Design the sequence.
């Protein structure tokens, strides 16, 4: 994008002022946690992702139960080890035999699985992204193969943007764990530019955000 | 088939549907909303990242090699496509691979890997939908991001109907459902996944994959062997570099803040456990040179290696949008396809570069600020010097002598230019299409009616007009000078050569350099005496500020560039208030404004719109593209210029006619001629709309 020098200088000045200001306000918002949440939910909705804000584990369970009611296949649970995950597995297992918890060395087949539930490591508000780590194909397949995917993330794991996570990424990569960013449902615009969901990955994508302290 | 025939064939196939253009416009509309989120600061930072990564490429390769060794993956460097394909074949044979799933990768297209594998009975399934469509159709991709952008839904449905042996409706939703099922079976059966990589991080060996479909993820989840094939230029130093680029890549490519799936994938990932294959994934990185290392040393074109394959340049390129990548491209297509074809497939495959009209829109769109129009002219020059310039271009290169000659006998010239039989002869021997109307020569040229005007209360101005205004529209120059003198400037019109754009356009860079030297010398001396240069033609200004400094690389050329303004840019600098004082109001006039390419390429602002609005006009404006004529480019007979040029113009005018102005207004004499030919609306130069307040 080419512009002449004078023009560049002016724009740069304006840009610097704008950036300083937005960076500062974004960081403040980010510390407060509130606006990241709002932004995250807005971005997800723009991407066609249904979002729910849950205030307790009971709340989450109720929402999840209503979604998995009609599911006839196994339900896979994968992702980051959190207290929410532990509690959810416990509660779901009580009245559902079809729950399978996926770990790096699981051998559960995923081909016919309709729905999976994942616990991402982080989320990015400005892009509406959830970030998973995985160290094996099965962990990956359990996120990408089922028709429906539900991500559950704590509010305080929502950061503002991709610039904020350089260290996180490097830490994971150092440990030998790959990271996968998911921003909305799988989509293609290869036929006449029309956006169609689910050519490969999940066609339907839900994100549940746990309000309250990180566990 | 000759280039000309290919162009004519595509123009008639795409007529009025313009599938490439429409797909690209859809993306541009999506982009418009969020592209402003990218700051200039970030763009500069990304450019620097790429410059450094290419500078430090050897060190980065070594760092990557060490990182991969630690993680148990192999790194191979292939000198060329054939060597890379052989490497893949060897791995297939070693592990008995019979089915390969492939995720979209331009680099594997570059080396035509599928052909090699299929010749050894290894089945390759493309898993990107667009790639799969062109694979089944037996075609090459026509766009680097949307391989099947040239097809309609009906054509796609026909391809799948034939492939599945049952009717598939022309409904993208239905088609996607069908292929989803098939893809999923293949992922589980394949013995190898081949992917490209958008970036590879030297620090830790991670490859970064960016897709919207998620096909790469599923291919990788299951395959026991993974071969990643990428150009060496994809190596970046650190995670930070990748994150910076990710802020601009999806926004520019598809208008998304982030693509649906972005993976930082390490070779330590194990594959999905099938039988005893748990933990058995083997990952091989094949990085391809194929001309890139040589290009690194080639100062004139080196910056194309900074390309991040965002396709922004393809989205805006007018001739490419009319004929698509099968004609405007080899494997790499569109503006970036010209230098990339030279680097990877050799100069002989770049003949399609003749379709570039040097409008400059690609550079304006490129987030890395790669000077594609200049690089493309260099490619044309090298092609011309090695294989011969196209005959038509060799004749049209002498346009200045032709115009000067014809202007000596204006009556006779006008008569000839209006006679059908004379035009047929001109078409045959000079190559100007007889359907293209040409402007009339006037009895007196500018030099004969103007010497100098005004007194230098506020300053001295050199008015640079270029040939068309000089011989055909001298009144505009006179009015332009009167306005400047009313504003307190002394105006002179020294004897200069035409700006030389047609020479640059056709790659006659030595001739262009000679003209640049002459003009720069004259202008520099006058600038030293306190003059500034004001160009009435946007293209002349583009030459002064963009091309001459590149061609000459001298301090003088840079000084001239720094002291040159477009005419309306200069008026803006003086101030709209002063301009309003000396010109009559044009309140009540409704105009549609066309922004010429060389005005927009220069400063990104819309100065003439501001000028017209300052004088009270109502201005309708839509940021579209090039008018299609581009100097003599759109005059050339048949598919080489005229037909494609008219198609570009027809689309544009169709859009303009919907906007509501009584006239189309533009400050470029070339655009003006094109619209006079293809539009039913009257066309005006902005100076034709205004009058000095002191007159009458
Ligand atoms: S200068 Fe214009 S015609 Fe040439 S490649 Fe760029 S956009 Fe296309
Ligand atoms: S040349 Fe520039 S605009 Fe074109 S694909 Fe490369 S980075 Fe994008």
Sequence:
């Amino acid at each position: 994008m080419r512009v002449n020098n004078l023009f560049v200088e002016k724009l740069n000045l304006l840009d610097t002022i704008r950036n300083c200001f937005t960076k500062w306000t974004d960081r403040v918002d980010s510390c407060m946690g509130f606006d990241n949440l709002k932004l995250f939910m807005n971005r997800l909705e723009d991407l066609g992702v249904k979002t729910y804000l849950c205030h307790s584990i009971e709340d989450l369970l109720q929402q999840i139960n209503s979604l998995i009611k009609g599911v006839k296949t196994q339900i896979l649970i994968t992702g980051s080890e959190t207290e929410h995950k532990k509690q959810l597995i416990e509660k779901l297992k009580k009245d559902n035999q079809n729950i399978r918890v996926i770990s790096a060395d699981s051998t559960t087949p995923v081909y016919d699985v309709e729905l999976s539930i994942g616990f991402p490591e982080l989320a990015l508000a400005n892009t509406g992204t959830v970030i998973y780590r995985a160290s094996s194909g099965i962990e990956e397949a359990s996120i990408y193969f089922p028709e429906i995917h539900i991500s559950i993330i704590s509010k305080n794991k929502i950061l503002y943007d991709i610039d904020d996570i350089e260290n996180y990424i490097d830490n994971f990569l150092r440990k030998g764990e790959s990271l996968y960013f998911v921003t909305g449902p799988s989509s293609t615009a290869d036929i006449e530019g029309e956006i169609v969901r689910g050519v490969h990955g999940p066609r339907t994508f839900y994100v549940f955000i746990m309000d309250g302290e990180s566990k | 088939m000759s280039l000309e025939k290919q162009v004519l064939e595509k123009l008639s196939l795409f007529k009025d549907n313009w599938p490439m253009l429409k797909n690209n416009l859809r993306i541009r509309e999506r982009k418009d909303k969020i592209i402003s989120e990218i700051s200039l600061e970030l763009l500069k930072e990304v450019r620097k990242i790429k410059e450094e990564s290419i500078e430090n490429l050897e060190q980065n390769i070594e760092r990557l090699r060490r990182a991969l060794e630690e993680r148990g993956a192999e790194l191979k460097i292939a000198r060329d496509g054939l060597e890379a394909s052989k490497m893949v074949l060897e791995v297939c044979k070693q592990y008995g691979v019979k089915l390969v799933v492939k995720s979209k990768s331009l680099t594997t297209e570059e080396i035509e890997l599928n052909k090699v594998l299929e010749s050894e009975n290894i089945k390759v399934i493309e898993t990107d939908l667009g790639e799969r469509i062109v694979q089944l159709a037996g075609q090459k991709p026509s766009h680097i991001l949307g391989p099947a952008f040239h097809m309609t839904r009906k054509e796609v449905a026909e391809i799948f109907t034939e492939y599945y042996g049952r009717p598939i409706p022309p409904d993208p939703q239905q088609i996607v459902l069908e292929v989803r099922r098939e893809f999923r079976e293949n992922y589980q059966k394949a013995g190898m996944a081949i992917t490209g990589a958008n970036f590879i991080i030297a620090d830790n060996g991670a490859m970064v994959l960016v897709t919207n479909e998620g096909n790469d993820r599923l291919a990788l989840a299951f395959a026991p062997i993974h071969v990643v094939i990428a150009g060496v230029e994809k190596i970046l130093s650190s995670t930070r570099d990748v994150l910076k680029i990710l802020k601009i890549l999806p926004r520019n490519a598809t208008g998304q803040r982030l693509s649906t799936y972005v993976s930082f994938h390490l070779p330590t990932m194990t594959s999905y456990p099938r039988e005893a294959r748990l933990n058995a994934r083997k990952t091989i990185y094949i990085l391809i040179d194929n001309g890139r290392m040589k290009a690194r040393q080639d100062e004139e074109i080196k910056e194309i290696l900074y390309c991040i394959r965002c396709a922004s340049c393809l989205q805006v390129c007018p001739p490419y949008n009319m004929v698509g990548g099968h004609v405007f491209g080899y494997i790499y297509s569109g503006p970036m396809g010209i230098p990339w074809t030279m680097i990877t497939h050799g100069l002989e495959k770049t003949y399609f570069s003749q379709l570039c009209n040097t409008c400059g829109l690609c550079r304006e769109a490129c987030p890395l600020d790669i000077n594609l129009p200049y690089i493309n002219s260099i490619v044309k020059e090298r092609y011309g010097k090695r294989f011969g310039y196209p005959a038509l271009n060799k004749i049209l290169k002498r346009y200045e002598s032709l115009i000067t000659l014809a202007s000596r006998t204006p009556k006779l010239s006008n008569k000839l230019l209006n006679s059908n039989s004379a035009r047929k002869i001109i078409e045959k021997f000079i190559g100007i299409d007889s359907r293209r109307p040409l402007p009339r020569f006037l009895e007196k040229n500018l030099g004969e009616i103007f010497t100098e005007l005004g007194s230098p209360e506020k300053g001295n101005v050199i008015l640079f007009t270029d040939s068309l205004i000089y011989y055909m529209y001298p009144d505009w120059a006179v009015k332009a000078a009167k306005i400047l003198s009313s504003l307190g400037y002394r105006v002179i019109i020294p004897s200069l050569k035409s700006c030389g754009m047609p020479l640059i356009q056709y790659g006659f860079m030595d001739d262009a350099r000679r003209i640049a030297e002459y003009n720069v010398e004259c202008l520099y001396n006058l600038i030293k005496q306190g003059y500034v240069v004001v160009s009435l033609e946007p293209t002349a200004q583009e030459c002064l500020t963009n091309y001459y400094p590149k061609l000459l690389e001298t301090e003088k050329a840079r000084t001239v560039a720094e002291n040159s303004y477009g005419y309306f840019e200069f008026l803006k600098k003086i101030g709209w208030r002063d301009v309003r004082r000396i010109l009559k109001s044009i309140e009540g006039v409704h105009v549609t404004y066309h922004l010429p390419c060389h005005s927009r390429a220069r400063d990104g602002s819309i100065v003439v719109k501001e000028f017209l609005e300052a004088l009270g006009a109502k201005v309708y404006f839509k940021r579209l593209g090039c008018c299609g004529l581009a100097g003599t480019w759109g005059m050339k007979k048949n598919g080489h210029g005229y037909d494609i040029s008219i198609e570009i113009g027809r689309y544009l005018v169709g859009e303009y006619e919907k906007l509501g102005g009584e006239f189309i207004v533009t400050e470029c004499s070339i655009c003006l001629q094109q619209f006079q030919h293809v539009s039913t609306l009257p066309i005006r130069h902005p100076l034709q709309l205004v009058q000095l307040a002191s007159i009458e």
